[in-house]
Amino acid sequence: MTAVATVPIDRELESILAIGREVIATEARALGQLVDTLDDDFSRAVQLLAATKQRVIVSGMGKSGHIGRKIAATLASTGTPALFVHPAEAAHGDLGMIIRGDLLLILSNSGTTPELRAVVEHAEAIGCPIIAVASQRTSPLMRSAAVRLILPQAREACPVNIAPTTSTTLMLALGDALAIAAMRVRGQTREGMRLLHPGGSIGGRLQPVQALMHSGSNLPLVAPETPMAEAIIEMTRKSYGIAGVIKDGALIGVVTDGDLRRHADDLLHGTAGDVMTPDPKVVQEGTLCEDALAILEEYRITALFVTAHDAPDRPVGLIHIHDLTRLRHA
Questions:
Q1: Under DSSP, is residue 163 helix (H, G, I), strand (E, B) or coil?
Q2: Domain carrying residue 26
Q3: pLDDT tier at 10 (50, 70, 90 boundaries)?
Q4: How far is CA 6 from CA 2, 3, 12, 19, 20, in A?
Q5: pTM for this structure?
């Protein structure tokens, strides 16, 4: 029998890894070219997006269409009403989805995609301006556009320069840039974003801390004269790794697991006032969960007391880092 030559597994893995890195490097270089080619046409496109009174209609065929769907979703989620219209379906009745006052954003790497003709002609007939994205400046699509966004002439990451890879990455990045720039021009706020994202991780992070905070009898609170043995029992009972120290209703300090370790010799005879860390980090009611999480991560702490909006030293709740990190996986 003839022996079959095999490639050592380590060499095969190195070869595969090199391919992956080259693909990403190729697309990264093209993105750098895109940054350098943005000009006043990009600014005009954003102004059109921000000023549109109706909807932004995004269209594209094939892989450009897949990217177009994502761009439409990103525009809508950042405050610019948008929807995707499939060009082939448009020629069979879906042109009725495009009405006077809409703005079209049409994607085609070549600018010669025949399926787009019906969409372009309908837009011209009812007076809808077109923002075109393509790599060929003199293509039919570009000749019909009010604003022309030219993609760099970059090689596809596909080894035979056929499969849309680099070109679709450029379209995706350009779509993100348009959406975020339009969002900023519109003055979209985080409150507006919360209204657009009531569910999932984003909606959770943009809600106020009182939506998640522990309050009432769940708050671990002790007086400064409380013996540490009792303070530890309170901390254990509430299971947040912290106890607030209050005097005349005001939060004057906290006792944390770290304080227990630092004052191990004082725990038998000390009080909460002896062991506490004074002037703790707090957030007020109305603070967004996203901002509270940023404070916890910046100062490497696990819990924050929430104070009343009208009395910034009176604790009304407690937010724990576990409550907030779960939002990222919602």
A1: coil
A2: 20-188
A3: confident
A4: 13, 9, 10, 19, 22
A5: 0.69
